[in-house]
Design a protein that fits this description.
With 205 residues, the chain is mainly alpha-helical. Helices cover 76% and strands 0% of the residues. The radius of gyration is 18 Å and the shape is globular.
Length: 205
């Protein structure tokens, strides 16, 4: 999805919810399939890459996808590079913790687009991390606060709707909370795709 608008906190909230709800059914099914097969060694790497990296990329670009895409063997094509990238990001994050935590979050946001760049642009791990740092420069606070605000909005919505439904029926409350719970994951996944797609477009990639 491309709106042409610059990355903003309001944009992250609005577009993430829109994309999450738009792709709710295939995302929810993909999540269920992932949960059911996550215990299978090696296969779980490909399904995790498919669900948390490749599908968000497609969502951000407005491309269609199937829940079965998480089982594509191509997902494991760069499995070595994937683990290297994740390993470097984790090392950077834990090193940041040694400097009183805040640098860890800065690194987490700065390098957070590396796995997407690895698969979408064919960069090697070091190039992906470097490019992620470049495209997030000057936008780290927007990404962090936008993602945080999105989660807070979802929690507030759950609280308000849960309270209102509680005045009507206890069973309705459980139903409302269940609906919000199952929509939480698709919206968060969609937010990753939206943020990544907006960043690469702003960077001209």
């Amino acid at each position: 999805m491309s709106t042409g608008e610059p990355l903003s906190i309001v944009g992250i909230i609005k577009n993430s919810i829109e994309l999450g709800l738009k792709n709710f059914i295939p995302l929810f099914i993909a999540f269920i399939l992932w949960v059911l097969t996550v215990w299978i060694p090696y296969l779980n790497v490909g399904t995790s890459i498919g669900l948390f990296v490749l599908i968000p990329i497609k969502i951000g670009k407005g491309e269609s996808f199937s829940p079965m895409d998480i089982f594509n063997k191509e997902n494991r094509k760069y499995i070595g590079e994937f683990f290297l990238t994740v390993g470097f990001v984790m090392l950077g994050f834990y090193a940041g913790i040694l400097f009183f935590i805040i640098p860890a979050f800065v690194i987490g946001v700065a390098w957070g687009q590396a796995t997407f760049l690895l698969f979408d642009k064919g960069l090697d791990p070091i190039q992906a991390i470097k490019k992620s740092n470049e495209i997030t420069y000057g936008k780290k606070w927007i990404i962090f606060l936008g993602s945080l605000a999105l989660v807070i909005c979802l929690i507030i919505a759950a609280f308000i709707l849960g309270f209102i439904s509680g005045l009507i029926s206890e069973y309705l409350t459980y139903l409302i909370l269940f609906v919000i719970y199952v929509t939480f994951f698709p919206i968060v996944i969609a937010s990753h795709g939206y943020i990544y797609n907006t960043l690469i477009k702003e960077a001209g990639l």
